[in-house]
Amino acid sequence: MEGMNAFQMLEYAAWGISALLALWMLFDLTVTDRTYSEDLLTSSREGEIDDALVIDPPHQGGHK
Amino acid sequence: MSQTTTIHGEKISLLRVLGPGHVWALGVGIVLVGEYMGWNFAVGKGGMIAALIACWVAGLLYTCVAMIDSEVTSTVAAAGGQYAQAKHIVGPLMAFNVGLFLVFAYTMLEAANAITLGYLVQTVGTMAGFEGVHDKPFIVLTIVFLAWLNYRGVYATLTFNLVITAIAFVAILVLFTAVIGPWAIVELNHKDLITGLPYGWMGVIAALHFGLWYYLGIEGTTQAAEEVRSPARALPLGTMLGMITLLIAATMTWYICSGLMPWEYLGQAVTPLFDAARLTGSGPLMVLLFVGTIFSTLASANGCINDASRAWFSMGRDRYLPVVFGAVHPKYRTPYRSIVFLVPVALVFAYYAPLDQVITFSILSGLLGYTFMSINVMMFRRK
Amino acid sequence: MAKKRYEPPQQSIAGQTIDSLFLLALVFATLFAPLYLGLAGGGKTSLEFKDQTWAGWGQNPAMQAQWEKLGYTDGAKVVTKKEDGTEEVTGNATSAVDLVSSRFDYSFDPLWLAITALVVILYFYIVFHWSAKEYRDVIDEKFNNK
Description:
The structure holds 3 protein chains of 3 kinds. By secondary structure, chain A is mainly alpha-helical. Chain A has helices at residues 6-35, 38-41, 57-60. The longest helix of chain A is centred in the first third of the chain and has 30 residues, at 6-35. Chain A is elongated, with a radius of gyration of 20 Å. By secondary structure, chain B is mainly α. In chain B, α4 crosses α5. Chain B has helices at 20-36, 41-73, 82-89, 92-127, 136-151, 154-179, 190-193, 201-211, 231-258, 263-266, 272-280, 283-317, 336-352, 355-382. Chain C is mainly alpha-helical. Chain C folds into 2 domains: 13-42 and 106-143, no CATH class; 44-104, no CATH class. Chain C has helices at 13-37, 61-69, 97-101, 110-143; strands at 44-46, 78-81, 87-91, 102-104. In chain C, strands 1-4 form a two-stranded antiparallel sheet. Classes of the chains: A mainly alpha, B mainly alpha, C mainly alpha. Chains in contact: A-B, B-C. Chains A and B meet through α1 and α2 of A and α5 and α13 of B.
């Protein structure tokens, strides 16, 4: 087999990007799970349309 | 390890940011790929006329599906869509079953889209003269990339879907405009190309199987119930507009293809609309329809990840599944654990299962869901 | 007398992880079982032609023109069996014969159709029946008026 052709490089790039994105998701998942309490993460309930109760933790100091 | 001290009443929910356009993109995005590939198997099952009958009969049924969804959603607007409807109207066991139908139907459809996309890239590679090209890297990339997009937030995901779905729809409109009227670049010959019913009426019934493919997935719009700014307006509007779009696209697609290809070819073609563009002999049209094919496939897989993860998430939230799946990402406000959990399922099927069988799973799960919906709406009206 | 409100027990993260993996295994098993048993997909047959020309295949001139534009030719495909048992197309590879001759086999056994219908009806009956019972339990509990 001679050197890689352009399409093979494309294939390796696809594998590489897939691996990176997958690793990023797993990394972010782990960090998120460790940063916030399980009670907060699973606090969503069906039918809560009242936005006053629902806050945006990273923007309102809910974490740490 | 730092722990949050949860202030009483502090909660995270999915983000309410979507408008009717996003709902349209979610519904049509999942389905439009059906006009680019898949619907034509109805022609193979029973001939051109059977496919048209199937297209309109299924269209009628799906208009009912869209109206049922609009009606029930006015009362039960929750992520999970038909799952949540089943929970409130029929009862827990039905809800659990419907939730599984939904997740299976969408995840299998996602796998089918990824397989198709990999195949298209492989075909381009082969046509460009490369040897030993593989489809697997692109199958995996499609699934992982779209899961990542879904993980990062619903607004970007569905805005992306809106753009690529609109392009794919416009591509069909352009092709249609190019083959009708006095400026037509190629003559449609329905008179000589349409034969009778090669299998008789049995073929018409068989064609219904793939007639569903013109619309399968439009009911997924209800999954966005907790993420639209105004569910009572945006969901019915987006769903009905989506249904109108699909009826137009489906009829145009049938008209173009049945006037250009012998039914034996059309019934087994992989990319019928792209083949129609090839038969016009126009280079720009070929490029446009190829882009349309790729975009519609991506949009469909993208919408499927969105819908499947919402259904899985709401089942976790209600303890039908482990509670961990009911988690919402504090920053991106998406059901991130459900999204990640379903990635390997889609990957394994896209990697190992043949396309037609994956499609059959998807249709079968869909059919079980529709059977439920019709009984459900009757119970809904009585309550 | 009011029923005691059901409080679901807390499940540990480890327990939930095990449950999730078990679910994953179940999902694969359910979906792959029909694949392995060959239950998905239908039967196909193929027509036999004596006259291997466009006309012999029942294609009129308009159809023939479109086939040719798509890059197909008429005439039978020449297939040779190789020593290891595999087949190789050695002549007329662009022939449309495979596409033109392929037909579905719609024959079915009424008994199996009836059994399938019965299974589906039974399934929906059971699910609706049990759901209705559970639904009443939930309502009773929520409104505390047993």
